[in-house]
Amino acid sequence: MSLHEQKRVAIVGGSGYAGGEFLRLALGHPHLNVTQVTSERHAGTPVSLVHPNLRGRTTLKFRKAAELDEADIIVLALPHGHAAKRIGEFEGKARVIVDLSADFRLKDPEVYQATYGEAHPTPDALGNWVYGNPELHREDLRGAARIACAGCFATSVILALYPLLKLGVLLPKDIIATGLVGSSAAGASATDGSHHPERAGSLRVYKPVGHRHTAEAQQELPGHFPLHLTAISTPRVRGILTTAHAWIPDGYSDRDVWSAYREVYSQEPFIRIVKVAKGIHRYPDPMLLDGTNYCDLGFEMDLDTGRVVLMSAIDNLVKGTAGHAIQSLNIAFDWPETAGLEFAGLHPA
Amino acid sequence: MSLHEQKRVAIVGGSGYAGGEFLRLALGHPHLNVTQVTSERHAGTPVSLVHPNLRGRTTLKFRKAAELDEADIIVLALPHGHAAKRIGEFEGKARVIVDLSADFRLKDPEVYQATYGEAHPTPDALGNWVYGNPELHREDLRGAARIACAGCFATSVILALYPLLKLGVLLPKDIIATGLVGSSAAGASATDGSHHPERAGSLRVYKPVGHRHTAEAQQELPGHFPLHLTAISTPRVRGILTTAHAWIPDGYSDRDVWSAYREVYSQEPFIRIVKVAKGIHRYPDPMLLDGTNYCDLGFEMDLDTGRVVLMSAIDNLVKGTAGHAIQSLNIAFDWPETAGLEFAGLHPA
Amino acid sequence: MSLHEQKRVAIVGGSGYAGGEFLRLALGHPHLNVTQVTSERHAGTPVSLVHPNLRGRTTLKFRKAAELDEADIIVLALPHGHAAKRIGEFEGKARVIVDLSADFRLKDPEVYQATYGEAHPTPDALGNWVYGNPELHREDLRGAARIACAGCFATSVILALYPLLKLGVLLPKDIIATGLVGSSAAGASATDGSHHPERAGSLRVYKPVGHRHTAEAQQELPGHFPLHLTAISTPRVRGILTTAHAWIPDGYSDRDVWSAYREVYSQEPFIRIVKVAKGIHRYPDPMLLDGTNYCDLGFEMDLDTGRVVLMSAIDNLVKGTAGHAIQSLNIAFDWPETAGLEFAGLHPA
Amino acid sequence: MSLHEQKRVAIVGGSGYAGGEFLRLALGHPHLNVTQVTSERHAGTPVSLVHPNLRGRTTLKFRKAAELDEADIIVLALPHGHAAKRIGEFEGKARVIVDLSADFRLKDPEVYQATYGEAHPTPDALGNWVYGNPELHREDLRGAARIACAGCFATSVILALYPLLKLGVLLPKDIIATGLVGSSAAGASATDGSHHPERAGSLRVYKPVGHRHTAEAQQELPGHFPLHLTAISTPRVRGILTTAHAWIPDGYSDRDVWSAYREVYSQEPFIRIVKVAKGIHRYPDPMLLDGTNYCDLGFEMDLDTGRVVLMSAIDNLVKGTAGHAIQSLNIAFDWPETAGLEFAGLHPA
């Protein structure tokens, strides 16, 4: 790799929040050069009209997907279901394809069908895709040509649970995880539910049971245990705070959770364990993570009952989507893993 | 009037925020009996599905406007421009009509045309309508059969300025008023601008110049002076905080403003002068007014420059729309003026 | 009871949010006449300076507790621990005492000590107090002279679970409840954690394990099962949304939950079951309840796993504190149960 | 200058928001090496406990100011009034001193006294300080050893008005500017007014007249005209949106404002003119600027009345304080002017 290597990136479906966030991060990345952004609705318009934070940062204009030229990397930021159906359009155009949707995350076509309610259009291709979670699949990501970025809620659940399940710190009992989710997770299109007067003060359970990310999380997490996800919308715009209730064996203590996290994550650049004895910032809080690629993890234990409350916080658009994708590309191309992801986050925020 | 007199009310266009708020207030009013609520889109649906605060409060269902039966009072809560065009549909159905839109507020058809960009469909009828601002038109409202409810921003401006202009406490110089407005003022329909992620953190100037309520305010306010309105949207859902910069003659002081407000408003049940020397609630704040019919007024003077900063706060949906309408009906029917408008507001809120 | 009966009320510790909310409700109550409000810090000051929503509603001034005169009802709104220590001061001053704190809720002094970390100062008196939850203790409340108002988070948990546990709809397995709580629950005093820049955007787990309301909830709920509570602060000011994960026996379905709720709550004036198939207001949402005495309940079932997600929403200061107290007094004095609690809540809000 | 030159920075008073923000920016700056941060209250504590966004970013601990060692640059982030009184402590410790307070901004000791109510402790030193506004004083900043950072509200006013006043596009009439300000502007200490339940929903006029930044703005702006400032707090944490009402001569139009801004600001890296014909992001909005050093400017004209509404948006802690300081240092040391200030801002946010 040359110090000055730059790869040409095309973002397909770049007017939404995931595509816009990838664009923001890529514009600040030393090895990425965004040369094309597509949007059917906004073709011909400067991208900075749709992503006003990028005023003065880029002169790119949206083009139609049909006008896509060659690139080194194509990033698909299409609505769920579209990437799989249209993958043929893109495969000849770039060596590396990153998909931000759910289309290529699940390995088992039957699980896909059970989860998304229709047969996968290219079931044989599923094996070619690496699940884009750097902490679990760093080795697979090196040199990868197909990266299926992990889902945001799934990421917050997986990163909290993985070390503990891997190292046997949890009992194989029901795990109940609740995600408190910001409004950006539902995308850039206005709906009745996203109308500000209906949403600004709301705490709204939008997926009490049957959340689709359950399948992803179960695919990635070791062991057999029932996993239950509930999702609640909050007045925040970005961020997910997940609390997961799990069960530790008799005789286990804080130390065991600490050491499991340390063993698995001590070298991870974007995982921080947040568990402070006093003050107001004792546990993970998505307030501190807007724009960052961190996943902050914390926990507290109830020794009387064996319950451990795991907590994880991420920015759903960064560590939950676009930052994840950048981090995966950094690994795939052997660039410094934190390249383009240096933002520390704001306080106060 | 019997103590138990009840008038039948029909609300036309009852699925929006103005109609819903009128309905909420009317359901708690001793002399109003809402018998019909129309909505083309929701006909057949219980009103409490659209206005979920009314669960358990009413079993009314929406009907189509074409099915409207007789009533004593019809309240029109239609989009601007519709009431005037369709007024013929309603005139035979009830003795009293209250319009919550801007259609019948302006007396002068030419001003209407200049303001709203089209000729008024029934210019000759404009003289029949009383401008529904109880503080200025209480006598005209007694027994009135046509009430055109004052606009929300206009109300906040008029109530702050009226006593001072009437009693000569202000110089005939430019008055600059800025309204900080909640998102409910733009209505119940989702738009790109009302999408929560775009609106939650926004401070957005949406009408720097040319606000249509200027015409209303100038019609109602005594004297000749240039009035300039600017409207900015805020992260609140309800409420308007207006600050108006005006100019006092040499030698005038706080006392003159106080006494003008007292002279004109001392008997007003919904006007409060808020000007406290210390503490955190020194001036009007819409935070305290959600759901109430109050207009809180305050001011501060800069004796060095002759500038006085007038402040007024209202709930745009109550004192700015539906509460105003109820208060006007209370006067029209000689009911206690505060009937149905007793809610004190919340603290904290 | 005379139609015009009025009882004199004294509020002790009336400058906080609980006392202020009781005052607001009592001022609108046909049978309550607030004659005294105490505050050591604000003695001599008009109550409306501290509770600015009450401007123009009352001319009461705070006095010191030492100056307390006789009343019919004393409402104690003191910090936890103070009411029990000072109860002797108040017992001769009024026949009926209502305590809004946690001091007299627990029947068992040992549980009190285990929960609050010190011996109860008047353990023998605990039996005289009725737990102020009207839905569970209506008969005990009739004529009661000592009412210990239920805690806010406890109330939201108890009301969601009680019918299902009573009627055997739940398995005796772990129940995990998460409360999303507004900032007013922490009281009226500014702290590092309540500083707006630190709190406005925060989702902060403040009590992952060991919440004190566990003891209350377990005292009141029938059956033996492990109950786990987690509390998270949200950007809202008022309101609690509780989701409780519990387990249903094989073969049970929605119908069983519905019928349990109906059997127990069908006559309850402040309980609403909210479970709508479509639209954006499908489940309980505290957004709709600010200022109201409602507890909205909902649920959703995962038949594959036997998990049921119960949801309950309240305003922590009303159904969670002061409204609860008013409702209990209405029962104690045989007044209409909804007297003073008629506010429907706002939409939008 | 070497490509790898690094200057040692000491931040005095580093536990507040201004100092914390400077620290965040400095940690990402290629030429700044923060070696010391002082806080009397937190001495001995890791800075990341107070500024939790910096977890994993620095191992610095607070020390007491008395333990201050030599540095190349000292940044004073002390409460207003302290820097001037204690300046002697710092002058021998570093060649370059940057003050973030108001202490050294005003050139005229009499204006200082009239504004801040006490005599300046070192009036003779005032002439040594450069007013830290890069757009107006770039040449003075080159090599400067004393930089008094411009105030946040003053900056938003000055940058909007300066080109128009300089080039004669405005009449010498009253200019009325309203600043909508986030809660972080009041600092990191909890107060009654910053208590979340009292602030979250508030729109609070906190300085209707007599704002101290008037003196700064008048010192920096060319020409003689009355300037009136009003400040209102909003529910945002960061950001200022200023609207200024000014007056244009007959015959002037949009073009004149455009060309004045272009003439003065076309080379400015942090000034953007935002005036878009359609869409929802037509004017400056602080929502888009959190964490960035931009000042976005816009305007709209009312040709009928000659009023122009100027709009400016900044992040009060960045372009209004710490970013300004970094930009000034970049100029002083001849580093690239955008070094350390590259963050584009988030959308959505």
Set out the fold topology.
The structure is a homotetramer of 349-residue chains.
Chain A: E1 7-12, H1 17-27, E2 32-38, H2 47-50, E3 62-63, E4 73-76, H3 82-91, E5 96-99, H4 109-116, E6 130-132, H5 134-141, E7 146-149, H6 152-166, E8 175-181, H7 196-199, E9 204-207, H8 213-220, E10 227-233, E11 240-247, H9 254-265, E12 271-273, E13 295-302, E14 307-314, H10 318-332
Parallel strand pairs in A: 1-2, 1-4, 2-3, 4-5, 5-7, 6-7, 8-10, 12-13
Antiparallel strand pairs in A: 8-11, 9-10, 11-14, 13-14
Helix pairs in contact in A: 1-10, 5-10, 6-8
CATH topology of the largest domain in chain A: Dihydrodipicolinate Reductase, domain 2
Number of strands of chain A: 14
Q: Oligomeric state of the chains? A: homotetramer
Tell me the overall shape of chain A. Answer: globular
Number of domains of chain A: 2
Q: Helical region count of chain A?
A: 10
What is the SS-derived class of chain A?
alpha/beta
Q: What is the CATH C level class of the largest domain in chain A, in words?
A: Alpha Beta
Assigned CATH superfamily of the largest domain in chain A: Dihydrodipicolinate Reductase, domain 2
Properties at a glance:
349 residues; alpha/beta; 21% strand; Dihydrodipicolinate Reductase, domain 2; seven-stranded parallel beta sheet; 27% helix; Rossmann fold; homotetramer
Describe the structure.
4 copies of one chain form a homotetramer. The first copy, chain A, is α/β, with parallel strands linked by helices. Helices cover 27% and strands 21% of the residues of chain A. Chain A contains 10 helices and 14 strands. In chain A, the strands form 2 sheets. Chain A has a 7-stranded parallel beta sheet, with helices on both faces. A 7-stranded mixed beta sheet of chain A has the order 9-10-8-11-14-13-12. In chain A, α1 (17-27) packs across α10 (318-332) and α6 packs parallel to α8. Chain A is globular and about 60 Å long. Chains in contact: A-B, A-C, A-D, B-C, B-D, C-D. At the A-C interface, β8, β10, β11, β13 and β14 of A face β8, β10, β11, β13 and β14 of C.
